[in-house]
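My main concern about presentation is that the manuscript never shows what a single data entry looks like. An entry of this sort, consisting of the sequence and the corresponding C-alpha coordinates, reads as follows:
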Amino acid sequence: MILKAENISFYYDANQPFQIPDIRLDRGQQLLILGRSGSGKTTILHILAGLLQPKAGEVSIDGTSLYTLKGTQLDKFRGKNIGIIFQKPHILAPLTVEENLMLANYFAGKKTDRITSVLQELGIGHKKKSLVNNLSEGEAQRVSIARALVNEPKLILADEPTASLDDQNAEAVVKLLKDQAEKHQAALVIVTHDQRVKNHISNQITVGI
Protein backbone atom coordinates (compact mmCIF):
# COMPACT_ATOMS: atom_id res chain seq x y z
CA MET A 1 0.00 0.00 0.00
CA ILE A 2 1.62 3.26 -1.16
CA LEU A 3 -0.68 5.70 0.67
CA LYS A 4 -2.70 4.95 3.77
CA ALA A 5 -4.46 7.66 5.77
CA GLU A 6 -6.63 6.47 8.64
CA ASN A 7 -8.75 8.17 11.32
CA ILE A 8 -7.43 11.62 10.39
CA SER A 9 -8.93 14.65 12.09
CA PHE A 10 -7.79 18.26 12.03
CA TYR A 11 -8.91 21.72 13.04
CA TYR A 12 -7.70 25.30 12.99
CA ASP A 13 -10.55 26.17 15.36
CA ALA A 14 -11.34 23.52 17.99
CA ASN A 15 -15.03 24.36 17.61
CA GLN A 16 -14.93 23.49 13.91
CA PRO A 17 -13.05 20.20 13.49
CA PHE A 18 -13.29 18.24 10.28
CA GLN A 19 -12.74 14.59 9.57
CA ILE A 20 -10.81 13.35 6.56
CA PRO A 21 -12.13 10.19 4.90
CA ASP A 22 -9.82 7.19 5.14
CA ILE A 23 -7.68 6.84 2.01
CA ARG A 24 -5.90 3.77 0.67
CA LEU A 25 -4.05 3.84 -2.64
CA ASP A 26 -1.69 1.32 -4.16
CA ARG A 27 0.76 1.71 -7.04
CA GLY A 28 -0.82 3.28 -10.12
CA GLN A 29 -4.12 4.08 -8.38
CA GLN A 30 -5.66 7.54 -8.60
CA LEU A 31 -7.94 9.64 -6.40
CA LEU A 32 -9.73 12.94 -7.02
CA ILE A 33 -10.68 15.03 -3.97
CA LEU A 34 -13.33 17.58 -4.91
CA GLY A 35 -14.59 20.51 -2.87
CA ARG A 36 -15.40 24.19 -3.05
CA SER A 37 -12.89 26.86 -2.07
CA GLY A 38 -12.33 26.85 1.69
CA SER A 39 -13.51 23.26 2.13
CA GLY A 40 -10.14 22.03 3.41
CA LYS A 41 -8.81 20.39 0.25
CA THR A 42 -5.37 21.97 0.47
CA THR A 43 -5.20 21.15 4.19
CA ILE A 44 -5.83 17.49 3.31
CA LEU A 45 -3.07 17.57 0.71
CA HIS A 46 -0.63 19.14 3.19
CA ILE A 47 -1.44 16.43 5.75
CA LEU A 48 -0.88 13.69 3.16
CA ALA A 49 2.43 15.33 2.22
CA GLY A 50 3.68 15.55 5.79
CA LEU A 51 3.65 19.34 5.68
CA LEU A 52 0.95 19.61 8.34
CA GLN A 53 0.45 17.24 11.27
CA PRO A 54 -3.12 16.11 12.00
CA LYS A 55 -4.62 16.29 15.47
CA ALA A 56 -5.27 12.54 15.33
CA GLY A 57 -4.75 9.62 12.98
CA GLU A 58 -1.89 8.34 10.87
CA VAL A 59 -0.54 8.80 7.35
CA SER A 60 1.88 6.23 6.00
CA ILE A 61 3.74 6.13 2.68
CA ASP A 62 4.82 2.66 1.53
CA GLY A 63 4.70 1.44 5.13
CA THR A 64 6.53 4.38 6.73
CA SER A 65 4.50 6.52 9.14
CA LEU A 66 5.16 10.15 8.19
CA TYR A 67 4.81 11.52 11.68
CA THR A 68 7.43 9.26 13.20
CA LEU A 69 9.94 11.22 11.09
CA LYS A 70 11.24 14.59 12.23
CA GLY A 71 13.02 17.58 10.71
CA THR A 72 15.53 16.82 7.98
CA GLN A 73 14.66 13.12 8.14
CA LEU A 74 11.08 13.94 7.11
CA ASP A 75 12.26 16.44 4.49
CA LYS A 76 14.53 13.87 2.86
CA PHE A 77 11.87 11.15 2.94
CA ARG A 78 9.38 13.56 1.34
CA GLY A 79 11.88 14.55 -1.34
CA LYS A 80 12.52 10.92 -2.28
CA ASN A 81 8.99 9.55 -2.07
CA ILE A 82 6.45 12.34 -2.59
CA GLY A 83 6.12 14.64 -5.59
CA ILE A 84 4.09 17.77 -4.76
CA ILE A 85 2.59 20.06 -7.39
CA PHE A 86 1.42 23.25 -5.72
CA GLN A 87 -1.39 25.47 -7.02
CA LYS A 88 1.11 28.10 -8.13
CA PRO A 89 4.28 26.79 -9.81
CA HIS A 90 6.72 26.07 -6.96
CA ILE A 91 9.88 26.91 -8.86
CA LEU A 92 12.61 29.54 -8.55
CA ALA A 93 12.21 32.19 -11.24
CA PRO A 94 15.86 33.42 -11.44
CA LEU A 95 17.12 29.88 -12.20
CA THR A 96 16.95 27.81 -15.36
CA VAL A 97 14.55 24.91 -15.76
CA GLU A 98 17.45 22.47 -15.39
CA GLU A 99 18.74 24.17 -12.23
CA ASN A 100 15.30 23.93 -10.60
CA LEU A 101 15.22 20.19 -11.21
CA MET A 102 18.82 19.79 -10.02
CA LEU A 103 17.78 21.43 -6.73
CA ALA A 104 14.99 18.88 -6.33
CA ASN A 105 17.56 16.11 -6.88
CA TYR A 106 19.97 17.67 -4.40
CA PHE A 107 17.46 18.02 -1.57
CA ALA A 108 16.34 14.41 -2.05
CA GLY A 109 19.92 13.14 -2.25
CA LYS A 110 19.31 11.64 -5.69
CA LYS A 111 21.22 11.66 -8.99
CA THR A 112 20.36 14.04 -11.82
CA ASP A 113 20.23 11.58 -14.70
CA ARG A 114 16.43 11.81 -15.19
CA ILE A 115 16.19 15.55 -15.84
CA THR A 116 16.43 15.43 -19.63
CA SER A 117 14.08 12.47 -20.02
CA VAL A 118 11.40 13.95 -17.72
CA LEU A 119 11.45 17.28 -19.56
CA GLN A 120 11.16 15.49 -22.89
CA GLU A 121 8.25 13.38 -21.65
CA LEU A 122 6.45 16.59 -20.67
CA GLY A 123 7.14 18.25 -24.02
CA ILE A 124 9.53 20.92 -22.71
CA GLY A 125 12.91 19.33 -23.36
CA HIS A 126 13.85 22.33 -25.49
CA LYS A 127 13.35 24.61 -22.45
CA LYS A 128 16.00 22.90 -20.32
CA LYS A 129 18.41 25.87 -20.38
CA SER A 130 15.68 28.54 -20.31
CA LEU A 131 15.18 30.86 -17.37
CA VAL A 132 11.88 30.26 -15.59
CA ASN A 133 11.20 34.00 -15.94
CA ASN A 134 10.92 33.52 -19.71
CA LEU A 135 8.38 30.68 -19.66
CA SER A 136 4.68 30.88 -20.44
CA GLU A 137 2.19 29.97 -17.71
CA GLY A 138 1.58 26.55 -19.25
CA GLU A 139 5.32 25.87 -19.55
CA ALA A 140 5.92 26.93 -15.93
CA GLN A 141 3.20 24.53 -14.81
CA ARG A 142 4.91 21.70 -16.71
CA VAL A 143 8.23 22.55 -15.06
CA SER A 144 6.48 22.37 -11.70
CA ILE A 145 5.20 18.92 -12.67
CA ALA A 146 8.68 17.90 -13.85
CA ARG A 147 10.15 19.02 -10.52
CA ALA A 148 7.64 16.82 -8.71
CA LEU A 149 8.35 13.81 -10.95
CA VAL A 150 12.12 13.95 -11.39
CA ASN A 151 12.86 11.86 -8.29
CA GLU A 152 10.43 9.10 -9.35
CA PRO A 153 8.13 9.54 -6.34
CA LYS A 154 5.87 6.77 -5.11
CA LEU A 155 3.11 9.32 -4.47
CA ILE A 156 2.15 12.37 -6.57
CA LEU A 157 0.05 15.09 -4.90
CA ALA A 158 -1.40 17.89 -7.04
CA ASP A 159 -3.14 20.96 -5.58
CA GLU A 160 -5.52 22.66 -8.05
CA PRO A 161 -3.23 21.89 -11.03
CA THR A 162 -5.78 23.22 -13.56
CA ALA A 163 -7.04 26.28 -11.67
CA SER A 164 -5.54 28.98 -13.90
CA LEU A 165 -5.59 27.08 -17.19
CA ASP A 166 -7.94 27.20 -20.17
CA ASP A 167 -9.87 24.08 -21.16
CA GLN A 168 -7.25 22.78 -23.58
CA ASN A 169 -4.32 23.18 -21.20
CA ALA A 170 -6.35 21.91 -18.23
CA GLU A 171 -7.13 18.68 -20.05
CA ALA A 172 -3.49 18.35 -21.14
CA VAL A 173 -2.19 18.75 -17.57
CA VAL A 174 -4.58 16.15 -16.14
CA LYS A 175 -3.61 13.74 -18.92
CA LEU A 176 0.09 14.36 -18.21
CA LEU A 177 -0.36 13.63 -14.52
CA LYS A 178 -2.32 10.45 -15.18
CA ASP A 179 0.09 9.25 -17.85
CA GLN A 180 3.13 9.87 -15.65
CA ALA A 181 1.53 8.17 -12.64
CA GLU A 182 0.65 5.14 -14.74
CA LYS A 183 4.04 5.00 -16.45
CA HIS A 184 5.97 5.10 -13.18
CA GLN A 185 3.37 3.18 -11.14
CA ALA A 186 2.94 6.03 -8.67
CA ALA A 187 -0.21 6.71 -6.67
CA LEU A 188 -1.84 10.02 -7.70
CA VAL A 189 -4.04 12.38 -5.65
CA ILE A 190 -5.49 15.53 -7.21
CA VAL A 191 -7.38 18.04 -5.04
CA THR A 192 -9.47 20.61 -6.88
CA HIS A 193 -12.69 22.59 -7.11
CA ASP A 194 -12.47 22.38 -10.92
CA GLN A 195 -15.44 20.40 -12.19
CA ARG A 196 -13.66 19.86 -15.52
CA VAL A 197 -11.47 17.24 -13.86
CA LYS A 198 -14.38 15.03 -12.74
CA ASN A 199 -14.61 13.07 -15.97
CA HIS A 200 -10.93 12.11 -15.94
CA ILE A 201 -10.69 10.22 -12.62
CA SER A 202 -13.52 7.93 -11.52
CA ASN A 203 -12.31 7.36 -7.94
CA GLN A 204 -13.58 10.47 -6.13
CA ILE A 205 -14.14 11.94 -2.67
CA THR A 206 -16.11 15.15 -2.10
CA VAL A 207 -15.30 17.22 0.99
CA GLY A 208 -17.01 20.17 2.64
CA ILE A 209 -20.54 19.33 1.50
Remarks:
- Strands lie at 3-10, 18-20, 23-25, 30-34, 56-61, 64-65, 82-85, 155-159, 187-192, 204-206.
- The two ends are 28 Å apart (CA to CA).
